[in-house]
Design goal:
Layout lengths: L8 E3 L2 E5 L3 E3 L5 E3 L7 E2 L10 E4 L2 E4 L4 E2 L1 E6 L13 E6 L13 H4 L11 E2 L2 H11 L3 E4 L8 H13 L3 E6 L5 H7 L5 E5 L5 H8 L4 H13 L4 E8 L7 H15 L5 E5 L14 H13 L5 E4 L9 E2 L6 E6 L2 E5 L1 E2 L2 E2 L12
Helix pairs in contact: 2-3, 7-8
């Protein structure tokens, strides 16, 4: 794998930058090592994400400083419920994705390939992103909206700069980062909020177009075990695809066994959209069942998402049942924590707290 290098050439108003983590093969082919797809490209070809292109045996990223989305959000919106609650985070996204999910809510950017002079983006370097976060009073940076794994050249540099400024960092990801990717960014990435879309290859392929669930689970465990990242998992419960007990109990039991029973699991309501517009919204009874399966697996923190007003959006102490974090919408409305423990009974609450 090649080390980080900087080789700029013109790409509209921006740059093409020499990509990190790729192998040079015979015939000027290259193999990308940023995500677990490990695309092999001949000269002139792009990978599945359509953001990396082989130029004569050198792999370039086309999105290094291209930002499509920029927003100051509450960290709870990610959702990250056990990670610095009540703080604001600068959320950034670019174009492309390693998946092509039929029901993607952000398909306008995730299903789009970067174009020269692309009106969907604007230039923003990692240094500018960090400076903007500091100026806006954000506590950290979060790369989200489309999958951040394909944006490694930007996220790595920005995460290093964020660490120097005392800012936390987070990926909202589909979990396709390779071990080599995680080894590069691991020292600088604090949170890994990952979608676990299903538990069998068939269901994973149906919801994302990618079937190697084992590669995703391996990466999530590696981020947690090797680099000590704070991990929270989300499953968007999609009728007829991943809503069976086999899928949901499989995910819940894997989280409990591989990551630990203190790992938060968010089970969220699916809403019909794009290629999945023909499916119904997730019935309440199905979400109730998913919640029960998570608790049966021993998970201490299971949450219901995309259902405004549901009481299971709050964090309750596993010792005495006190609501230690109450949430209203995307905000933490009340915190009853002292030093990371329940203020009533002193039971430690797993997470990262300031």
């Amino acid at each position: 794998m090649r080390p980080t290098q900087v080789c700029y050439t013109a790409f509209g108003e921006s740059f093409m930058k020499d990509a990190v983590l790729y192998e040079q093969l015979d015939g000027k082919r290259v193999r990308c090592g940023v995500c677990v797809r490990r695309c092999v490209m001949r000269p002139g070809e792009r990978g599945v994400c359509r953001t990396r292109e082989n130029h004569g045996g050198r792999l370039d990223t086309l999105i290094y400083d291209r930002v499509s989305s920029l927003c100051l959000d509450p960290i709870e919106k990610k959702p990250l419920y056990h990670f610095h609650p009540g703080t604001a985070v600068l959320s950034l996204g670019t174009l492309g994705c390693s998946f092509c999910c039929p029901g993607c809510q952000n398909w306008q950017i995730s299903h789009r390939a970067p174009l020269e002079h692309d009106p969907a983006t604007r230039p923003l370097t990692p240094a500018q992103a960090v400076a903007y976060a500091v100026q806006a009073g954000a506590a950290g940076l979060c790369w989200t909206y489309n999958d951040p794994a394909i944006w490694l050249e930007h996220t790595l540099e920005a995460a290093q700069l964020a660490r120097r400024h005392g800012l936390y960092t987070a990926y909202v990801t589909n979990g396709t980062a390779t071990r080599e990717h995680l080894d590069l960014i691991g020292p600088y990435l604090d949170a890994y909020r990952v979608d676990l879309k299903a538990f069998t290859p068939e269901a994973y392929r149906a919801v994302s177009g990618f079937a190697d669930v084992g590669a995703i689970l391996d990466g999530v465990r590696y981020a947690h075990d090797r680099w000590g990242m704070h991990v929270e998992c989300v499953t968007n419960v999609t009728p007829t695809i991943n809503d069976s007990d086999v899928q949901l109990s499989g995910i819940a039991n894997w989280i409990a066994t591989a990551l630990g029973v203190d790992t938060p699991w968010h089970v969220t309501r699916f809403h019909p959209h794009e290629g999945f517009a023909h499916l119904p919204a997730t019935p309440a009874a199905c979400l109730d069942r998913a919640y029960a399966l998570g608790r049966d697996a021993g998970l201490r923190y299971v949450y219901i998402g995309n259902v405004p007003g549901d009481s299971r959006q709050h964090t309750c102490c596993p010792g005495c049942g006190t609501r230690v974090i109450e949430r209203q919408g995307y905000s933490a409305a009340a915190l009853r924590l002292q030093g990371g423990a329940c203020s009533r009974c002193g039971t430690p609450i797993a997470g990262r707290w300031k």
